[in-house]
């Protein structure tokens, strides 16, 4: 195997394959083929001149290939493709006919590049790579030819002989198109219109004539149809009359036979009815007796059952009423007993609360009456410091004081003492109580107030009576009063 790989054979095979690839690529580049709707124009060859009968003609060096393949010389020749497909071109031309009537004609033309080599070369020279220009050029040429043909004829000819108008347009435009390498396969007129309704007015007379003929024919057909209908109705009426007469004759015979049969039938029915009535009388008598016995049995049984049911229901109702009455009586007795006990308890509570409140009110009143004088004395004692302060106020406002007296500075305290003596005389003259009496009665009032407060606290009531505490009756000690009186004097 390795010998084969290192032998010249693989190199030869690869070389052959490489050459084949190069050959294929080269063949593809030099071989050109045209489709069924295409033509190849090959350039690069020199044109040739030919002299015939003294006339020189030059043959183009362009080669046209249609529907087949061809090899070209690289670097010296080029191949160009041009489409041979047909194309529909819409044409609209507005022109006046020979009578001056303005018409709008719409048409469609099928245009393509010609099949002969000369036409293909001409089209390639003018439209190669510009297929859209073929449509524009053909449309302009055909539109001009159509306007020219319209001006040479009249409206009726155009309407009645459209193919002649198409032939005239092609005859005018074909030469111009052939010079460009184009050919027209067909040219058809699609429609003819005008803005002034001239074409419609042309047909109005004919339309009126046809309409009139149609109306006459319609009336004639209606008349004939009505006559035929009348004849048919007459024939039907005659047939119906004949049928009615025949029915009447048959009915007469039928009624006669029916009357005879009706006369014999009641007699037979009366006899048969008598026998039936007799049998019915016997049947009715037996049914009455049977029904009477059934009723007697049913009434007696029902009456006995109702009497027993009423008796049992009355006994049960009486027992239920007695039981309900006893239960109601017991309930009422228990309710009355509970209400009485509740009322007694409420009365006892109200009595106890009233007694306590009355006792508390009485004790409070006694304590208040006993201590009213002490209250007044207390208020008067509480005002003594303020009185002393007011007496010493004039002297307190003096920045420098010079005392001219044989007693010296002690004269100031004497003046204050004389002020208190005047206050004491004023109180004695107005209220009957002096400062000495107030201070002496202060101690006794405090003891009495404490006793009264203890008595009030022992009652334990604070609902509606007066709550008097012993603290409210405590008075300041005499030492505290002396200090309060001495403070203004020291100032």
Automatic annotation (TrEMBL):
This is Flotillin. One of its GO terms (cellular component) is plasma membrane. CDD domains: SPFH_flotillin (cd03399). GO terms for molecular function: protease binding. Gene3D superfamilies: Band 7 domain. Residues 39-206 form the Band domain. Its main location: membrane. Pfam families: Band_7 (PF01145), Flot (PF15975). Belongs to the band 7/mec-2 family. Flotillin subfamily. The chain crosses the membrane at residues 6-27.
């Amino acid at each position: 195997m390795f010998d084969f790989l290192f032998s010249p054979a693989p190199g030869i095979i690869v070389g052959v394959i490489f050459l084949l690839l190069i050959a294929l690529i080269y063949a593809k580049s030099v071989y050109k083929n045209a489709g069924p709707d295409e033509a190849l124009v090959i350039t690069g060859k020199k044109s040739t001149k030919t002299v015939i009968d003294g006339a020189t003609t030059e043959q183009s060096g362009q080669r046209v290939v249609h529907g087949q393949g061809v090899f070209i010389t690289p670097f010296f020749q080029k191949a160009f493709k041009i489409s041979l497909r047909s194309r529909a071109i819409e044409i609209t031309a507005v022109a006046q006919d020979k009578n001056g009537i303005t018409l709008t004609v719409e048409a469609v033309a099928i245009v393509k590049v010609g099949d002969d080599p000369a036409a293909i070369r001409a089209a390639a020279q003018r439209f190669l790579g510009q297929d859209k220009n073929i449509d524009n050029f053909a449309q302009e040429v055909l539109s001009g030819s159509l306007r020219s043909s319209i001006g040479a004829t009249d409206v009726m000819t155009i309407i009645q002989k459209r193919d002649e108008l198409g032939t005239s347009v092609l005859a005018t435009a074909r030469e111009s198109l052939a010079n460009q390498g184009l050919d027209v396969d067909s040219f058809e007129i699609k429609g003819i219109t005008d803005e002034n309704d001239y074409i419609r007015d042309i047909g109005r007379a004919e339309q009126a004539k046809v309409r009139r003929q149609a109306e006459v024919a319609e009336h004639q057909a209606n008349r004939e149809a009505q006559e035929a209908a009348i004849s048919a109705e007459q024939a039907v009426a005659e047939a119906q009359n004949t049928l009615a007469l025949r029915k009447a004759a048959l009915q007469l015979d039928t009624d006669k036979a029916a009357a005879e049969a009706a006369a014999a039938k009641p007699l037979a029915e009366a006899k048969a009815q008598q026998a039936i009535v007799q049998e019915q009388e016997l049947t009715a008598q037996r049914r009455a007796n049977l029904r009477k016995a059934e009723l007697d049995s049913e009434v007696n049984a029902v009456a006995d059952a109702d009497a027993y049911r009423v008796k049992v229901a009355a006994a049960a109702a009486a027992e239920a009423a007695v039981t309900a009455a006893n239960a109601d009586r017991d309930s009422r007795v228990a309710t009355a007993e509970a209400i009485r006990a509740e009322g007694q308890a409420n009365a006892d509570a109200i009595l106890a609360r009233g007694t306590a409140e009355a006792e508390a009110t009485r004790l409070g009143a006694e304590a208040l009456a006993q201590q009213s004088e002490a209250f007044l004395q207390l208020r008067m004692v509480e005002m003594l410091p303020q009185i002393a302060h007011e007496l010493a106020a004039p002297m307190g406002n003096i920045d420098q004081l010079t005392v001219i007296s044989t007693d010296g500075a002690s004269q100031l305290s004497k003046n204050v003492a004389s002020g208190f003596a005047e206050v004491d005389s004023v109180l004695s003259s107005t209220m009957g109580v002096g400062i000495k009496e107030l201070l002496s009665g202060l101690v006794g009032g405090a003891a009495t107030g404490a006793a009264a407060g203890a008595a009030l606290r022992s009652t334990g009531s604070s609902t509606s009576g007066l709550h008097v505490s012993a603290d409210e009756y405590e008075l300041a000690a005499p030492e505290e009063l002396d200090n309060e009186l001495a403070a203004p004097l020291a100032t």
